[in-house]
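Lecture 7 notes. Example A: sequence first, then its structure tokens.
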Amino acid sequence: MAFSTLSVLMLDCSRDGEEGANSSAMQINDAVMESLWLALGSVAFALLLPVAALWAFGLAFGSSFLLAAAALLLVRRLRG
């Protein structure tokens, strides 16, 4: 749901003729950031699991919560 809303906002803010490049850049950014976050989270989880399983689960859920909170703070800038 958020991706389609951001796509519409991005297309609205794009100059004429730049819509395709901006849309491609947004899709690439989305794929790269999802992969990076998943990879870093998996490595942290795998390293911490043998040492402290409870902390590993807490880190996994806590980092997702912090990422969502940061996104909500950034969204406040989009209100006109």
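Example B, a different protein, same format:
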Amino acid sequence: MAGHDEHESSIYSTASLSGRSRRDLTVGAGVVITDPTSGPSVFVHITGAEGAIDEDAYMSIDEAIDLVDALVAAIGHARSALAEVIR
């Protein structure tokens, strides 16, 4: 597991539709131990805009599952909208 400020073992993806001023954003996720008494935390790391953005959001496992569910729902809506456009 990575340490509190280490993101080497994280998985990253480019956020290519972020807009002209933020086209170099990347979004990563990983696991860290921020508090040994409460166990691991899942984090989302957003970085880019020539160093102007470098933020972490730390979540419990349940919060991370809620985020995954929200992303899956959003992807489903986006696919449906794309299918309508293609028709």
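Note on Example B: Residues 61-86 form the longest helix (26 residues). Helices lie at 61-86.
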